[in-house]
Amino acid sequence: MIQALKKTSLFTQTSMINCLLKISALSANRHSAFKKSKSIRLKRPLFTFFAACLLSLSLSGQDCTGYHQYHCTYADYTYFYSRQSKSALFSPGQEGEMHFIAYADEEYYVSICAHKKMGDIQFKIFEDSPERNLIYDNSSDGFSPSVVFRNERTRNLIIEVKIPDKGNDKERRCVGVLIEFKKTNE
Length: 186
Known about the structure:
CATH class of the largest domain: Mainly Beta
Number of domains: 2
Number of strands: 9
Largest sheet: 5 strands, antiparallel
CATH topology of the largest domain: Jelly Rolls
Structural class: alpha+beta
């Protein structure tokens, strides 16, 4: 899941950098050797090029940054938001995973959210070890979109998200993983 997010944001950053480099090169050429009459002729192509770059960025992909903050269900006010929460763009039938650290003596609330057209999203929580011990699978819990669990020792965990294949619908949509935590009173 993080890899899908990185690919999308890397493509967007690369496109933006290329557009800015081309614009600055055109701008530098315009100011150096051209007369005023020639620079007026360059303003329209420069504006057209800049508009085309912005249009290509908006068409290149949906921005899922912060999707989990606005669409996932939060626990009650006793939990704190974890900055390990993530969002990414998924296609039907796609699987992804993200890693996070669960600290000792904390209770965690994990919530998955996506557009209704994505269907029942399956997510599993594994221990990040060679054995990959299964901690939770929401398919055995009626595809519940959230889970609460206690962690007695610090460990690395993996959240695996699987989007069902919906036949003809191949539209990519945002999926969010919200993680919240609170100290346990023991």
